[in-house]
Amino acid sequence: MAHSERRGASSLNIGEVLAALAGEFPSMTASKIRFLEEKGLISPERTPAGYRQYGERDVERLRFVLALQRDQYLPLKVIKDYLDAIDRGERPESLPGGLTLAPRAVSDDVAAELRTTRARALSEEQLRAESGASVSLVEALRSYGLISEEDGRYDEHALQVARACVQLESHGIEPRHLGQFRAAAEREFGLVERAVAPIASRRDEAARARTAETAREISDLCLTLHRALVHGRISRMEGS
């Protein structure tokens, strides 16, 4: 069933949609909503005069897309492919980024997923509890610049780093060995930043949305290239 057919009876204008999203996404703008429409993520109905009308399902869909962008760093194309599958009546086993979704009552389940994927500020105790990292590992990750805190709190990025480093530590790979990853990430960001500079130079809200999305797409391609190169070397180990 197409998402345009799943709207509730009420309809909202774009200002009301922004107000509904403001608590979770305070930097959201009308231009960004129109950008997401342009990319096919939402399809609001139109009045005979051409004004957009948004239903509650549109708002939930926006929340879902924005949360995946913010918390899972996924390009819009990946998110759209997933939502297109849902719209076709398919039931993908997992969401982009590895989240799970029960194969029924999609809109309700999407709302439940969103409650678990919103950005959080974690204390060091929470960071250690959720990642399995020891006190010494967290201290080492900080000292090597792999994670950082702000006002004594850590974000989801730090949690993902800590989880990965716990697993790497079990293979004998310690934080002191991982400086090259930070350096590579900084070089990759510099490459992405230069690539999007022509878009970023524009000052309108839509340009900022396009800049962020293009940056995500380029970063995703860089990660795919990196993975392919490393896995290619590993496959040679199997054949040697």
TrEMBL record:
SUPFAM superfamilies: Putative DNA-binding domain. GO terms for molecular function: DNA binding; DNA-binding transcription factor activity. InterPro entries: DNA-bd_dom_put_sf (IPR009061), MerR-type_HTH_dom (IPR000551), MerR_fam (IPR047057). Residues 33-85 form the HTH merR-type domain. Pfam families: MerR_1. Keywords: DNA-binding. This is MerR family transcriptional regulator.
